[in-house]
C-alpha cells in the first residue's frame, strides 16, 4: 500500500514537469520503471510516455529513442491489462502520419511487435487492436500495416475451427468496416464472402449459431455505410436479422433491433429496408410491440431504433420519403401517436428519454406535426416545464421543443402564436 501511495505522489510530481524534461532527465528511470515488479510503478512510467506522445516536442524526442519505444511495445504484453492499455493507447496515438506508422510497423519496432503478438492469443489481440486502429487512419496506413503481416494473423483466425477465436476475429474486423478503404481491403482479400458463408452456415445449422450475433453486428456495421450494396450482395444478412427479431432470446433480439436502427440511420438505409416489403412492415409491428413490454433493455433499444428510423436530415427530405415514413409509422401500432405520447409521460427515465427522441424525429415531418397538433393535451404538455425534474429529462424534452421550433412547417401547422411560445 505504501508503494502505491509513493507511486501516486511520484506521478503527481512528474505531471508538474514538461514531458520532454522528464524524458531528458529521467529517461533511464522510465526505461527501468517499465519493468518494475509493481504494476503501479509501471503505470506511472507509461503515463509519462503517454504525455510525451501528446506533446509535439516530446513526441519528436520519443520517436528518436527506439530502445525506449521497444520497451513500450513489450509492455503491450504486460500481465496487467491496465498497464497494457496505456502502452496500446500510446502506440495508437503515435501513429498519426505515414512516417510514424512506418516507424512502428516497418522499422526496428516491427520485430518486437510481432514477438509480443506471438506470446499468446490474448496478447496477440492486443497487438491486432493496435494494428486495426491504425489501419483506419488512411489507405496508406492500411497498406503499411498490411505489409507488416499482422493483419494476416487476424485473417487466418477466420479459418480456424475454434469458435472463440473466430468470434474474436470477427469482432476485431468490425473496426476495419468503419472506413471505405477498410471495406475495400476486406472485399479484396475475400473476408466478406467468407463471413457470408459463415452467416449462412449459422442460419442453416442451429448448432453453429454461436457466431451469429457477431456476424450480424459485422454486416450491420457494413450496411450502415453501404446499405444498398450489402442488401444486394449479402441477402442472408437481412434475412437473418428479420428472423432474429421474431425470436424469444433477448440478447439476439437486441442485436436485430440495433441492426435495423443502424441501417435505418441513413436515407439510403431507409430505402433499402423499405425494399424488403413485408419483412420490414412486420419488423415495424414487432418494434411497436417490443416498446410496450419488458424487458426494459429491449424496450430501450427498440425505442432508440425507431428514433433512428424516423430521423431525417432536413436537406434529404422529399415527398416520397415522407410518404414512406408515414406508412411505416402506421405499422408501429393501431394508434402509434397515442402510444409514443403515453411513453413520453412514463415515470421511468430510461423509457421516457428515448421516447422523446422519437417525438423529436417526428416533429420534423409535416404529416406527424398535423396529427400531434390535433392530439388532445399535446400543446400543453410540450410547454409544461414541470413534467421533467432531472437534467437529462429536461434536455431530452428541450430537443423536442427545439426540433419543432426549427422545423419547416411548424408555423403553418401549429400557428405562429404557438411557435412564438415555444
UniProtKB/TrEMBL annotation:
InterPro entries the record matches: ARM-like (IPR011989), ARM-type_fold (IPR016024), PSMD5 (IPR019538)
One Pfam family recorded for the sequence:
Proteasom_PSMB
Q: Which GO terms describe its biological process?
A: proteasome assembly
| A single GO cellular-component term on record | cytosol
Entry keywords, A to Z: Proteasome
Q: Does Coiled coil count among this protein's keywords?
A: no
Instruction: Enumerate the Gene3D superfamilies for this protein.
Output: Leucine-rich Repeat Variant
Task: Please name the SUPFAM superfamilies in this protein's record.
Answer: ARM repeat
**What family name appears in the similarity comment?**
Belongs to the proteasome subunit S5B/HSM3 family.
Question: In its UniProt entry, what is this protein called?
Answer: 26S proteasome non-ATPase regulatory subunit 5
Q: What is the lineage of its organism?
A: Eukaryota, Metazoa, Echinodermata, Eleutherozoa, Echinozoa
Amino acid at each position: 500500500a505504501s508503494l502505491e501511495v509513493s507511486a501516486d505522489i511520484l506521478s503527481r510530481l512528474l505531471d508538474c514537469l514538461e514531458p520532454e524534461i522528464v524524458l531528458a532527465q529521467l529517461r533511464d528511470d522510465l526505461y527501468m520503471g517499465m519493468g518494475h515488479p509493481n504494476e503501479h510503478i509501471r503505470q506511472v512510467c507509461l503515463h509519462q510516455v503517454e504525455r510525451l506522445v501528446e506533446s509535439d516536442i516530446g513526441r519528436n524526442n520519443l520517436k528518436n529513442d527506439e530502445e525506449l519505444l521497444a520497451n513500450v511495445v513489450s509492455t503491450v504484453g504486460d500481465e496487467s491489462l491496465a498497464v497494457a492499455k496505456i502502452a496500446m493507447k500510446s502506440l495508437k496515438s503515435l501513429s498519426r502520419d505515414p512516417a510514424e506508422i512506418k516507424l512502428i510497423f516497418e522499422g526496428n519496432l516491427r520485430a518486437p511487435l510481432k514477438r509480443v503478438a506471438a506470446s499468446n492469443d490474448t496478447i496477440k489481440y492486443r497487438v491486432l487492436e493496435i494494428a486495426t486502429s491504425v489501419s483506419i487512419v488512411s489507405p496508406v496506413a492500411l497498406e503499411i500495416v498490411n505489409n507488416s503481416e499482422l493483419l494476416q494473423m487476424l485473417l487466418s483466425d477466420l479459418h480456424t475451427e475454434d469458435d472463440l477465436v473466430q468470434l474474436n476475429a470477427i469482432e476485431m474486423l468490425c473496426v476495419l468496416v468503419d472506413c471505405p478503404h477498410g471495406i475495400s481491403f476486406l472485399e479484396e482479400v475475400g473476408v466478406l464472402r467468407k463471413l457470408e458463408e459463415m452467416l449462412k452456415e449459422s442460419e442453416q445449422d442451429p448448432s453453429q449459431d454461436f457466431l451469429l450475433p457477431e456476424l450480424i453486428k459485422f454486416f450491420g456495421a457494413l450496411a450502415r455505410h453501404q446499405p444498398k450494396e450489402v442488401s444486394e450482395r449479402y441477402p442472408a444478412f437481412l434475412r437473418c436479422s428479420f428472423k432474429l427479431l421474431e425470436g424469444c432470446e433477448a440478447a439476439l433480439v437486441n442485436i436485430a433491433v440495433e441492426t435495423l436502427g443502424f441501417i435505418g440511420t441513413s436515407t439510403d438505409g431507409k430505402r433499402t429496408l423499405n425494399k424488403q416489403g413485408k419483412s420490414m412492415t412486420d419488423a415495424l409491428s414487432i418494434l411497436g410491440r417490443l416498446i410496450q413490454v419488458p424487458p426494459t433493455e429491449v424496450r430501450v433499444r427498440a425505442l432508440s431504433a425507431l428514433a433512428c428510423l424516423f430521423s431525417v436530415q432536413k436537406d434529404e427530405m422529399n415527398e416520397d420519403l415522407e410518404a414512406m415514413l408515414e406508412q411505416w409509422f402506421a405499422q408501429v401500432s393501431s394508434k402509434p401517436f397515442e402510444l409514443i405520447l403515453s411513453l413520453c409521460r412514463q415515470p421511468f427515465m430510461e423509457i421516457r428519454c428515448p421516447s422523446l427522441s422519437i417525438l423529436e424525429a417526428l416533429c420534423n415531418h409535416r404529416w406527424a406535426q398535423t396529427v400531434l397538433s390535433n392530439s388532445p393535451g399535446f400543446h400543453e404538455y410540450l410547454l409544461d416545464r414541470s413534467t421533467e425534474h432531472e437534467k437529462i429529462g429536461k434536455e431530452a424534452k428541450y430537443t423536442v421543443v427545439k426540433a419543432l421550433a426549427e422545423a419547416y412547417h411548424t408555423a403553418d401547422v401549429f400557428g405562429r402564436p404557438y411557435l412564438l411560445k415555444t
